[in-house]
């Protein structure tokens, strides 16, 4: 489940930054060069770390940028999930990049460590992007990155079993009850996993940390408020009534869901764009749409993850790094990157472009992202996953009701945050 890894490590885990080698005058190939001897304020080069096997478009943009601006951009491929460890050493040593790539939920951690820089362009840099992406790269009211790609779970369905996406979860519930007699399933979701379960919990009014004007308050946790408990109970209903198989609970749930969907024993699933290629390989006549509305009329508010370009706090070339990133993530280049690597760019202008509008999965992700919530990008989020997983599994197995499970989870989360801050 790529997204979960993207996250916490759903989701996860990269903290990172970069630093430039000019800081020490080293000769490492990753270092950006000092200002030209001709007296120009332009650096001879800047360095960007791009994800492995996804650098071709970035290299093309870098070449055009050099021809136009006279600044060389060296593109080095470093696996995104490896950049944390590498940069943690290279940054202080003056051998890192000017620009690196990280999952947005790690921004708070690397900011606290003093490793990435607040963007000089601030909110102006985010004008081209959808609101969810803007929120994702904002920490403590300040902007720390340029959004590259957005991911979130959507409804993926078998068009041979379900001609069109239903408008409501009530419709899917009815389909599920109708198919149950034939030992088939109308809808499957990994709702004992908080990455996915956040959707209905938030849709009923729960929240992880209170958002106070772009600042997340870890002392205000809304995972056991009235709405959150309603979400827990709604989740429990699907398990209790046998609409989700018992095999869907626990570590093997993802494999079980994929197998049932691949064998055409399930009409639809809640999953992300990372699952599309595998489903198509299994011969599924695949459709995609934003998730249906909940019985309360509200959307399922999924977690949204944003791959983010950030500027090293050690870089002496921040202005040029930002100038390059503004070019790299503009509508034209973002669309080229989508067409090459099928990663959905959160650029507002692209949602009406045929390349994305006519792509069911991309259009679904765009639509769902508008209803979603950026995964919290503060360090305290790391204390949420395990207590919520335990609470959800108690509900899924019928061992505990929603209120008790939610209360216990929030109590544990608060205790862990307090202990971690001592």
Description:
This protein is an alpha+beta fold. It has helices at 2-7, 56-69, 83-93, 107-112, 131-136, 169-180, 194-203, 226-240, 253-262, 276-281, 318-328, 331-341, 354-357, 360-371, 385-396, 402-420; strands spanning 45-50, 72-77, 99-103, 138-139, 142-143, 146-151, 154-158, 207-212, 215-222, 268-271, 286-289, 303-311, 373-374. Strands 3, 6, 12 and 13 form a 4-stranded mixed β-sheet that branches. α2 (56-69) links the parallel β1 and β2 (72-77). The model is unreliable at 1-29 and 31-40 (pLDDT under 50).
**What fraction of the residues are assigned to beta strands by DSSP?**
15-25%
Secondary structure: number of strands: 13
- Biggest sheet, open or closed, and with what strands and sense? 4 strands, mixed
Radius of gyration from CA coordinates: 22 Å
The string of secondary-structure elements, in order, is HEHEHEHHEEEEHHEEHHEHEEHHHHEHH
State the secondary-structure class. Answer: alpha+beta
User: What is the highest CATH level, the class of the largest domain?
Assistant: Alpha Beta
